[in-house]
Amino acid sequence: MVSVAENAGSKPDAAWGAVLSMALCVAMLIASEFMPVSLLTPMAEGLGATEGQTGQAISISGLFAVLASLLITTVAGTLNRKWVMVAMTGFMLLSLALVAAAPNFAVLMIGRALLGICIGGFWALATAVIMRLVPESDVPRALALMYGGQAIAAAFAAPIGSYLGGMFGWREVFWALTPIVAINLVWHVIALPSLPARQKQDFRAMFDLLKRSYFLRGLMACMLSWGSAFTMFTYLRPFLEQVTGVDVTALSILLLLLGCAGFIGTWAAGRFLKGNVAPFLKLPALVMGGATVGLLLFGFSPIAAGLFMMIWGAMNTMFSVIWMTWMSQNADDTPEAAGSLMVAAIQTSILLGAVVGGLLLDGISIQATFIGSVVLAVLAFVLIGNGQRMLKSA
Protein backbone atom coordinates (compact mmCIF):
# COMPACT_ATOMS: atom_id res chain seq x y z
CA MET A 1 0.00 0.00 0.00
CA VAL A 2 2.88 2.36 0.69
CA SER A 3 4.15 2.02 -2.85
CA VAL A 4 0.70 2.74 -4.24
CA ALA A 5 0.47 5.87 -2.14
CA GLU A 6 3.92 7.02 -3.11
CA ASN A 7 3.30 6.41 -6.81
CA ALA A 8 0.09 8.42 -6.53
CA GLY A 9 1.98 11.32 -5.05
CA SER A 10 0.31 10.87 -1.66
CA LYS A 11 1.56 11.77 1.74
CA PRO A 12 3.11 8.84 3.66
CA ASP A 13 0.19 8.79 6.11
CA ALA A 14 -2.47 8.30 3.44
CA ALA A 15 -4.58 5.39 4.69
CA TRP A 16 -5.03 3.44 1.47
CA GLY A 17 -5.58 0.23 3.40
CA ALA A 18 -8.53 1.91 5.10
CA VAL A 19 -9.87 3.03 1.71
CA LEU A 20 -9.73 -0.56 0.46
CA SER A 21 -11.50 -1.67 3.62
CA MET A 22 -14.25 0.87 2.86
CA ALA A 23 -14.48 -0.45 -0.72
CA LEU A 24 -14.98 -4.00 0.54
CA CYS A 25 -17.65 -2.74 2.93
CA VAL A 26 -19.46 -1.08 0.00
CA ALA A 27 -19.35 -4.32 -2.00
CA MET A 28 -20.77 -6.29 0.93
CA LEU A 29 -23.46 -3.67 1.58
CA ILE A 30 -24.68 -3.74 -2.01
CA ALA A 31 -24.54 -7.53 -2.12
CA SER A 32 -26.42 -7.84 1.19
CA GLU A 33 -29.03 -5.21 0.32
CA PHE A 34 -30.05 -6.58 -3.06
CA MET A 35 -29.34 -10.32 -2.72
CA PRO A 36 -33.07 -10.97 -2.08
CA VAL A 37 -33.74 -9.76 -5.65
CA SER A 38 -31.97 -12.80 -7.10
CA LEU A 39 -33.31 -15.16 -4.41
CA LEU A 40 -36.86 -13.84 -4.11
CA THR A 41 -38.70 -16.96 -5.23
CA PRO A 42 -36.86 -19.56 -3.09
CA MET A 43 -36.87 -17.22 -0.07
CA ALA A 44 -40.64 -16.84 -0.35
CA GLU A 45 -41.08 -20.61 -0.58
CA GLY A 46 -38.73 -21.27 2.35
CA LEU A 47 -40.49 -18.79 4.64
CA GLY A 48 -44.04 -19.64 3.60
CA ALA A 49 -44.65 -16.12 2.28
CA THR A 50 -45.69 -14.65 -1.05
CA GLU A 51 -43.12 -13.13 -3.40
CA GLY A 52 -44.71 -9.73 -2.83
CA GLN A 53 -44.33 -10.09 0.94
CA THR A 54 -40.73 -11.24 0.63
CA GLY A 55 -40.01 -8.21 -1.54
CA GLN A 56 -40.79 -6.12 1.52
CA ALA A 57 -37.49 -7.41 2.93
CA ILE A 58 -35.93 -4.78 0.69
CA SER A 59 -38.47 -2.13 1.65
CA ILE A 60 -37.89 -2.57 5.39
CA SER A 61 -34.14 -2.13 5.00
CA GLY A 62 -34.93 1.02 3.03
CA LEU A 63 -37.14 2.36 5.83
CA PHE A 64 -34.46 1.95 8.47
CA ALA A 65 -31.81 3.29 6.08
CA VAL A 66 -33.85 6.48 5.72
CA LEU A 67 -34.04 6.92 9.49
CA ALA A 68 -30.36 6.13 9.98
CA SER A 69 -29.19 8.47 7.23
CA LEU A 70 -31.06 11.40 8.79
CA LEU A 71 -30.13 10.63 12.40
CA ILE A 72 -26.66 9.07 12.30
CA THR A 73 -24.55 12.24 12.57
CA THR A 74 -26.76 13.58 15.34
CA VAL A 75 -27.08 10.32 17.28
CA ALA A 76 -23.39 9.49 16.85
CA GLY A 77 -22.65 12.98 18.19
CA THR A 78 -19.08 13.11 19.44
CA LEU A 79 -18.35 9.41 18.91
CA ASN A 80 -15.18 8.59 17.02
CA ARG A 81 -16.20 7.94 13.40
CA LYS A 82 -13.89 4.91 13.22
CA TRP A 83 -15.95 3.08 15.81
CA VAL A 84 -19.20 4.19 14.22
CA MET A 85 -18.05 2.54 10.97
CA VAL A 86 -17.02 -0.58 12.89
CA ALA A 87 -20.47 -0.67 14.52
CA MET A 88 -22.20 -0.32 11.14
CA THR A 89 -20.24 -3.29 9.81
CA GLY A 90 -21.14 -5.23 12.95
CA PHE A 91 -24.82 -4.57 12.26
CA MET A 92 -24.34 -5.95 8.74
CA LEU A 93 -22.75 -9.13 10.10
CA LEU A 94 -25.57 -9.65 12.59
CA SER A 95 -28.14 -8.95 9.89
CA LEU A 96 -26.73 -11.60 7.57
CA ALA A 97 -26.73 -14.18 10.35
CA LEU A 98 -30.35 -13.42 11.27
CA VAL A 99 -31.52 -13.61 7.65
CA ALA A 100 -29.65 -16.86 7.01
CA ALA A 101 -31.07 -18.50 10.13
CA ALA A 102 -34.53 -16.88 9.98
CA PRO A 103 -37.16 -19.45 11.04
CA ASN A 104 -39.97 -17.15 9.91
CA PHE A 105 -40.80 -13.93 8.09
CA ALA A 106 -40.66 -11.79 11.26
CA VAL A 107 -37.03 -12.67 12.01
CA LEU A 108 -36.14 -12.01 8.39
CA MET A 109 -37.57 -8.50 8.69
CA ILE A 110 -35.63 -7.84 11.92
CA GLY A 111 -32.43 -8.85 10.16
CA ARG A 112 -33.20 -6.60 7.22
CA ALA A 113 -34.01 -3.70 9.57
CA LEU A 114 -30.51 -4.01 11.08
CA LEU A 115 -29.05 -3.96 7.59
CA GLY A 116 -30.99 -0.77 6.88
CA ILE A 117 -29.34 0.94 9.85
CA CYS A 118 -25.96 -0.05 8.46
CA ILE A 119 -26.82 1.15 4.94
CA GLY A 120 -28.11 4.56 6.00
CA GLY A 121 -25.38 5.15 8.56
CA PHE A 122 -22.55 4.07 6.29
CA TRP A 123 -23.56 6.07 3.23
CA ALA A 124 -24.31 9.22 5.22
CA LEU A 125 -20.75 9.22 6.61
CA ALA A 126 -18.75 7.47 3.87
CA THR A 127 -17.66 10.47 1.80
CA ALA A 128 -16.70 12.51 4.84
CA VAL A 129 -14.63 9.60 6.15
CA ILE A 130 -12.86 9.12 2.81
CA MET A 131 -11.96 12.81 2.78
CA ARG A 132 -10.14 12.30 6.08
CA LEU A 133 -8.25 9.19 5.00
CA VAL A 134 -6.21 10.67 2.14
CA PRO A 135 -4.83 14.08 1.14
CA GLU A 136 -7.21 16.38 -0.72
CA SER A 137 -5.56 15.72 -4.09
CA ASP A 138 -6.21 11.98 -3.73
CA VAL A 139 -9.88 12.22 -2.68
CA PRO A 140 -11.29 11.63 -6.22
CA ARG A 141 -9.11 8.53 -6.62
CA ALA A 142 -10.13 7.26 -3.20
CA LEU A 143 -13.82 7.82 -3.91
CA ALA A 144 -13.50 6.02 -7.25
CA LEU A 145 -11.85 3.11 -5.45
CA MET A 146 -14.62 2.97 -2.88
CA TYR A 147 -17.39 3.09 -5.49
CA GLY A 148 -15.54 0.37 -7.38
CA GLY A 149 -16.86 -1.96 -4.69
CA GLN A 150 -20.39 -0.97 -5.68
CA ALA A 151 -19.78 -1.70 -9.37
CA ILE A 152 -18.28 -5.12 -8.64
CA ALA A 153 -21.13 -6.11 -6.32
CA ALA A 154 -23.73 -4.88 -8.79
CA ALA A 155 -22.14 -6.97 -11.54
CA PHE A 156 -21.57 -10.25 -9.74
CA ALA A 157 -23.62 -10.49 -6.51
CA ALA A 158 -27.01 -11.14 -8.12
CA PRO A 159 -25.96 -13.75 -10.72
CA ILE A 160 -23.66 -15.58 -8.32
CA GLY A 161 -26.35 -15.42 -5.64
CA SER A 162 -29.01 -16.91 -7.90
CA TYR A 163 -26.65 -19.62 -9.17
CA LEU A 164 -25.39 -20.66 -5.72
CA GLY A 165 -28.90 -20.40 -4.35
CA GLY A 166 -30.04 -22.90 -6.96
CA MET A 167 -27.19 -25.27 -6.08
CA PHE A 168 -27.06 -25.04 -2.28
CA GLY A 169 -30.10 -23.06 -1.11
CA TRP A 170 -30.76 -19.39 -0.38
CA ARG A 171 -29.74 -19.59 3.29
CA GLU A 172 -26.29 -20.84 2.36
CA VAL A 173 -25.80 -17.79 0.12
CA PHE A 174 -26.29 -15.46 3.09
CA TRP A 175 -24.12 -17.63 5.33
CA ALA A 176 -21.37 -17.44 2.69
CA LEU A 177 -21.25 -13.66 3.04
CA THR A 178 -20.74 -13.68 6.82
CA PRO A 179 -17.02 -14.62 6.95
CA ILE A 180 -16.21 -11.92 4.39
CA VAL A 181 -18.03 -9.29 6.46
CA ALA A 182 -16.30 -10.58 9.62
CA ILE A 183 -12.92 -10.12 7.92
CA ASN A 184 -14.02 -6.66 6.82
CA LEU A 185 -14.94 -5.74 10.40
CA VAL A 186 -11.49 -6.77 11.67
CA TRP A 187 -9.90 -4.89 8.75
CA HIS A 188 -11.78 -1.74 9.79
CA VAL A 189 -10.44 -2.05 13.34
CA ILE A 190 -6.86 -2.44 12.08
CA ALA A 191 -6.80 -0.08 9.10
CA LEU A 192 -9.08 2.83 10.01
CA PRO A 193 -7.23 5.54 11.94
CA SER A 194 -8.84 7.38 14.82
CA LEU A 195 -11.44 9.79 13.39
CA PRO A 196 -12.68 12.08 16.17
CA ALA A 197 -15.98 13.82 15.48
CA ARG A 198 -15.54 17.34 14.13
CA GLN A 199 -19.00 18.84 14.04
CA LYS A 200 -22.51 17.55 14.73
CA GLN A 201 -25.06 17.68 11.94
CA ASP A 202 -27.53 20.50 12.41
CA PHE A 203 -31.08 19.59 11.31
CA ARG A 204 -31.64 23.24 10.46
CA ALA A 205 -29.22 22.91 7.56
CA MET A 206 -31.41 20.18 6.05
CA PHE A 207 -34.60 22.17 6.56
CA ASP A 208 -33.00 25.26 5.02
CA LEU A 209 -31.93 23.18 2.02
CA LEU A 210 -35.47 21.91 1.52
CA LYS A 211 -36.70 25.50 1.39
CA ARG A 212 -34.77 25.97 -1.85
CA SER A 213 -37.34 25.26 -4.56
CA TYR A 214 -34.79 24.04 -7.13
CA PHE A 215 -33.33 21.52 -4.67
CA LEU A 216 -36.74 20.28 -3.55
CA ARG A 217 -37.83 19.78 -7.18
CA GLY A 218 -34.63 17.90 -7.90
CA LEU A 219 -35.06 15.73 -4.84
CA MET A 220 -38.63 14.85 -5.88
CA ALA A 221 -37.52 14.03 -9.42
CA CYS A 222 -34.69 11.88 -8.06
CA MET A 223 -37.15 10.00 -5.84
CA LEU A 224 -39.56 9.33 -8.70
CA SER A 225 -36.69 8.09 -10.87
CA TRP A 226 -35.36 5.77 -8.18
CA GLY A 227 -38.87 4.62 -7.29
CA SER A 228 -39.44 3.65 -10.90
CA ALA A 229 -36.17 1.73 -11.04
CA PHE A 230 -36.79 -0.31 -7.91
CA THR A 231 -40.45 -1.01 -8.55
CA MET A 232 -39.13 -2.96 -11.53
CA PHE A 233 -35.77 -4.24 -10.29
CA THR A 234 -37.04 -5.73 -7.01
CA TYR A 235 -39.39 -8.04 -8.92
CA LEU A 236 -37.20 -8.77 -11.93
CA ARG A 237 -36.75 -12.45 -11.04
CA PRO A 238 -40.50 -13.25 -10.96
CA PHE A 239 -40.85 -11.52 -14.34
CA LEU A 240 -38.02 -13.52 -15.90
CA GLU A 241 -39.40 -16.76 -14.48
CA GLN A 242 -43.06 -16.17 -15.30
CA VAL A 243 -42.86 -14.23 -18.57
CA THR A 244 -39.46 -15.05 -20.09
CA GLY A 245 -39.57 -18.60 -18.73
CA VAL A 246 -35.90 -18.94 -17.77
CA ASP A 247 -34.33 -21.51 -15.44
CA VAL A 248 -31.80 -20.70 -12.72
CA THR A 249 -28.80 -20.93 -15.07
CA ALA A 250 -30.33 -18.59 -17.67
CA LEU A 251 -31.48 -16.27 -14.90
CA SER A 252 -27.92 -16.04 -13.58
CA ILE A 253 -26.59 -15.28 -17.07
CA LEU A 254 -29.16 -12.52 -17.61
CA LEU A 255 -28.39 -10.94 -14.24
CA LEU A 256 -24.67 -11.12 -15.05
CA LEU A 257 -25.30 -9.29 -18.33
CA LEU A 258 -27.24 -6.61 -16.47
CA GLY A 259 -24.47 -6.19 -13.92
CA CYS A 260 -21.59 -6.16 -16.39
CA ALA A 261 -23.39 -3.52 -18.47
CA GLY A 262 -22.95 -1.31 -15.42
CA PHE A 263 -19.25 -1.01 -16.17
CA ILE A 264 -20.20 0.53 -19.53
CA GLY A 265 -22.42 3.01 -17.71
CA THR A 266 -19.62 3.94 -15.32
CA TRP A 267 -17.26 4.58 -18.26
CA ALA A 268 -19.88 6.62 -20.11
CA ALA A 269 -20.58 8.77 -17.05
CA GLY A 270 -16.90 9.64 -16.70
CA ARG A 271 -16.57 10.27 -20.42
CA PHE A 272 -19.63 12.39 -21.13
CA LEU A 273 -20.85 13.85 -17.83
CA LYS A 274 -19.12 17.22 -17.75
CA GLY A 275 -20.20 20.78 -17.14
CA ASN A 276 -23.93 21.46 -17.09
CA VAL A 277 -25.69 18.39 -15.67
CA ALA A 278 -29.24 19.56 -16.52
CA PRO A 279 -29.58 17.71 -19.87
CA PHE A 280 -28.62 14.41 -18.23
CA LEU A 281 -31.13 14.47 -15.38
CA LYS A 282 -33.98 13.00 -17.42
CA LEU A 283 -31.89 10.18 -18.93
CA PRO A 284 -32.35 7.61 -16.12
CA ALA A 285 -36.16 7.88 -16.19
CA LEU A 286 -36.22 7.96 -20.00
CA VAL A 287 -33.80 5.11 -20.70
CA MET A 288 -34.68 2.81 -17.78
CA GLY A 289 -38.40 3.43 -18.24
CA GLY A 290 -38.01 2.71 -21.94
CA ALA A 291 -36.15 -0.53 -21.17
CA THR A 292 -39.00 -1.58 -18.86
CA VAL A 293 -41.49 -0.94 -21.68
CA GLY A 294 -39.29 -3.09 -23.90
CA LEU A 295 -39.42 -5.92 -21.36
CA LEU A 296 -43.21 -5.64 -21.17
CA LEU A 297 -43.53 -5.87 -24.96
CA PHE A 298 -40.76 -8.34 -25.82
CA GLY A 299 -39.79 -9.94 -22.52
CA PHE A 300 -41.06 -13.34 -23.66
CA SER A 301 -37.82 -13.64 -25.66
CA PRO A 302 -34.65 -14.34 -23.60
CA ILE A 303 -32.51 -12.52 -26.16
CA ALA A 304 -34.71 -9.42 -26.11
CA ALA A 305 -34.91 -9.56 -22.31
CA GLY A 306 -31.11 -9.70 -22.11
CA LEU A 307 -30.77 -6.69 -24.43
CA PHE A 308 -33.19 -4.51 -22.47
CA MET A 309 -31.65 -5.60 -19.18
CA MET A 310 -28.21 -4.53 -20.44
CA ILE A 311 -29.60 -1.12 -21.43
CA TRP A 312 -31.21 -0.83 -17.99
CA GLY A 313 -28.02 -1.93 -16.24
CA ALA A 314 -25.79 0.53 -18.09
CA MET A 315 -28.02 3.45 -17.18
CA ASN A 316 -28.35 2.20 -13.61
CA THR A 317 -24.69 2.92 -12.86
CA MET A 318 -24.84 6.28 -14.63
CA PHE A 319 -27.90 7.05 -12.51
CA SER A 320 -25.99 7.57 -9.25
CA VAL A 321 -23.22 9.58 -10.90
CA ILE A 322 -25.68 11.91 -12.62
CA TRP A 323 -27.68 12.73 -9.51
CA MET A 324 -24.71 12.92 -7.14
CA THR A 325 -23.05 15.33 -9.58
CA TRP A 326 -26.23 17.41 -9.54
CA MET A 327 -26.10 17.44 -5.74
CA SER A 328 -22.44 18.46 -5.62
CA GLN A 329 -23.04 21.33 -8.03
CA ASN A 330 -26.27 22.62 -6.51
CA ALA A 331 -25.71 22.13 -2.77
CA ASP A 332 -21.98 22.74 -2.60
CA ASP A 333 -22.36 25.06 0.38
CA THR A 334 -24.00 22.36 2.57
CA PRO A 335 -22.72 19.02 1.22
CA GLU A 336 -23.24 17.03 4.43
CA ALA A 337 -26.87 18.09 4.80
CA ALA A 338 -27.45 17.43 1.11
CA GLY A 339 -25.80 14.03 1.37
CA SER A 340 -28.06 13.00 4.25
CA LEU A 341 -31.14 14.14 2.34
CA MET A 342 -30.06 12.36 -0.84
CA VAL A 343 -29.45 9.07 0.97
CA ALA A 344 -32.80 9.40 2.74
CA ALA A 345 -34.58 10.21 -0.54
CA ILE A 346 -33.03 7.30 -2.41
CA GLN A 347 -33.75 4.80 0.35
CA THR A 348 -37.34 6.08 0.64
CA SER A 349 -37.73 5.46 -3.07
CA ILE A 350 -36.34 1.93 -2.76
CA LEU A 351 -38.80 1.32 0.08
CA LEU A 352 -41.81 2.68 -1.82
CA GLY A 353 -40.78 0.93 -5.02
CA ALA A 354 -40.64 -2.44 -3.26
CA VAL A 355 -43.95 -1.81 -1.46
CA VAL A 356 -45.87 -0.61 -4.55
CA GLY A 357 -44.37 -3.32 -6.75
CA GLY A 358 -45.22 -6.03 -4.23
CA LEU A 359 -48.81 -4.88 -3.88
CA LEU A 360 -49.26 -4.81 -7.65
CA LEU A 361 -47.65 -8.24 -8.01
CA ASP A 362 -49.79 -9.91 -5.33
CA GLY A 363 -52.95 -8.00 -6.20
CA ILE A 364 -52.83 -8.03 -10.01
CA SER A 365 -49.83 -9.43 -11.89
CA ILE A 366 -46.11 -9.03 -12.57
CA GLN A 367 -47.02 -7.01 -15.67
CA ALA A 368 -48.90 -4.55 -13.44
CA THR A 369 -45.75 -4.13 -11.35
CA PHE A 370 -43.73 -3.20 -14.43
CA ILE A 371 -46.46 -0.85 -15.66
CA GLY A 372 -46.33 0.88 -12.28
CA SER A 373 -42.60 1.34 -12.79
CA VAL A 374 -43.20 2.95 -16.19
CA VAL A 375 -45.81 5.33 -14.73
CA LEU A 376 -43.30 6.57 -12.14
CA ALA A 377 -40.69 7.03 -14.87
CA VAL A 378 -43.12 9.15 -16.91
CA LEU A 379 -43.89 11.33 -13.88
CA ALA A 380 -40.17 11.85 -13.28
CA PHE A 381 -39.56 12.73 -16.93
CA VAL A 382 -42.38 15.30 -16.93
CA LEU A 383 -41.20 16.90 -13.68
CA ILE A 384 -37.60 17.19 -14.86
CA GLY A 385 -38.34 18.67 -18.27
CA ASN A 386 -35.12 20.21 -19.59
CA GLY A 387 -33.59 20.12 -16.11
CA GLN A 388 -33.05 23.86 -15.81
CA ARG A 389 -35.54 24.29 -12.94
CA MET A 390 -33.39 21.90 -10.89
CA LEU A 391 -30.39 24.25 -10.95
CA LYS A 392 -29.62 26.88 -8.33
CA SER A 393 -28.75 29.40 -11.02
CA ALA A 394 -32.19 29.06 -12.61
TrEMBL record:
Keywords: Cell membrane, Membrane, Transmembrane, Transmembrane helix. The chain crosses the membrane at residues 14-37, 57-76, 83-103, 109-130, 142-161, 173-193, 214-236, 248-268, 280-300, 338-360, 366-384. Residues 1-392 form the Major facilitator superfamily (MFS) profile domain. GO terms for cellular component: plasma membrane. Pfam families: MFS_1. It is a multi-pass membrane protein. Its main location: membrane. It is found in: Cell membrane. One of its GO terms (molecular function) is transmembrane transporter activity. InterPro entries: MFS, MFS_dom, MFS_Efflux_Transporters, MFS_trans_sf. This is MFS transporter. It comes from Pseudaminobacter soli.
